[in-house]
Specification:
alpha+beta, signal
């Protein structure tokens, strides 16, 4: 009897964890292997701390390059439908900013589309690499 209750409790906890991730589609980690970038974000809750930029407090998220300390900080995010969010980004130097949209295509595919402002650029082998206007990202 004790074993059955334990199994039932574990099954309920697993089901609630799955339901929470479906209920919060604008939270998690996205990546693009071609450009070696990733986005860590939480547009539903109180936000997250950007590594090395904790003095700024909780932000909706950031875009970063793998094995690099350069960040594009997401300073504001507004969910405008079940599959779209409007975001504002600024680089960690504070010299460039832009607006963009993050759209959900399916359960694991998102598209970041740049809007007004500067172009998204990340360091790559000692040079700046422009990212495409539409960037496909996969959920981890």
């Amino acid at each position: 009897m004790k074993r059955i209750l334990t199994i039932a409790a574990l099954a309920l906890m697993a089901a609630s964890a799955i339901a929470q991730s479906d209920a919060e589609p604008f939270k998690g980690n996205l990546s693009n292997d071609e450009y070696k970038i990733y986005i860590n974000f939480d547009f539903h809750g109180s936000g997250i701390n950007v590594p090395g930029h904790e003095i700024l407090g909780q932000l909706p998220g950031y875009l970063a390059k793998q094995r690099n300390s350069f960040y594009w900080l997401i300073t504001s995010a507004k969910i405008v439908g079940k599959d779209k969010a409007e975001i504002e980004l600024i680089n960690d130097y504070g010299s460039e900013d832009l607006t963009a949209t993050l759209t959900i295509k399916d359960d694991s595919t998102y598209v970041l589309t740049q809007g007004d402002g500067s172009a998204l650029k990340v360091p790559n082998d000692g040079k700046w690499q422009k990212l495409p206007q539409k960037l496909v990202l996969k959920k981890k």
